[in-house]
Description:
This protein is of the alpha/beta class. It has helices spanning about 10-20, 30-40, 60-65, 85-95, 105-120, 155-165, 175-180, 190-205; strands at about 1-5, 25-30, 45-50, 75-80, 100, 130, 135, 140-145, 150, 170, 210-215, 215-220. Helix 6 (about 155-165) packs across helix 7. The two termini are about 25 Å apart.
Amino acid sequence: MIYCVEDDTSIRELMLYALRASGFEAEGFCDGASLFQAMNHTMPQLIMLDIMLPGMDGIEILKKIRANSATVRIPVIVASAKGTEYDKVVGLDLGADDYLAKPFGMTEMISRIRAVLRRCAPQADTGRLQLGNLQMDTQAHTVYAGGQRVELTLKEFELLRLFMENPRRVFTRDQLLERIWSADYLGETRTVDVHIGTLRTKLGGCGEYIRTVRGVGYRLEEQA
């Protein structure tokens, strides 16, 4: 999911069209408040962020993103008509991953986004995943919660693996059914709820990491 924060409706719609036509999921926002509200439910892969925005400007938004442990690693590309060297340096110094000066072409935008996503992608898979006191070795097929070995069924393991590979991302029940039970599985979303309940129980205290997002689905997030 790519989030585009741009107050010019025509530019924002053009960006969203280009992203979706290139195979990305994308959502657009006209200000920082809408962006942060959306991130309470779903974390994006990358944020396209305009500097000149009403209310909270792009620099303030970028500072907040980098100051929050839950969002600090989200790649951000700053886009602005303020294409001076100073503005570019300020954005990059504050933690932007790239900078696009307006006007820019949609082909260039897509190319930059793909380059940043490649650059920010996790390094070669060691098979080890960790979130708080929860550890998984995907190669050895083992899970430890609070230092204790936990025995999981195949579906429970794959469900937890999906969550651990995508921390803080919200998955709907339908998405979990498709990812874990395959697209042609003729089941009900209740199947997901039952497996989530069993998984939480087996993980003990770490089971609280699996958060219910009411009306949406589930996400994995370490306790504050």
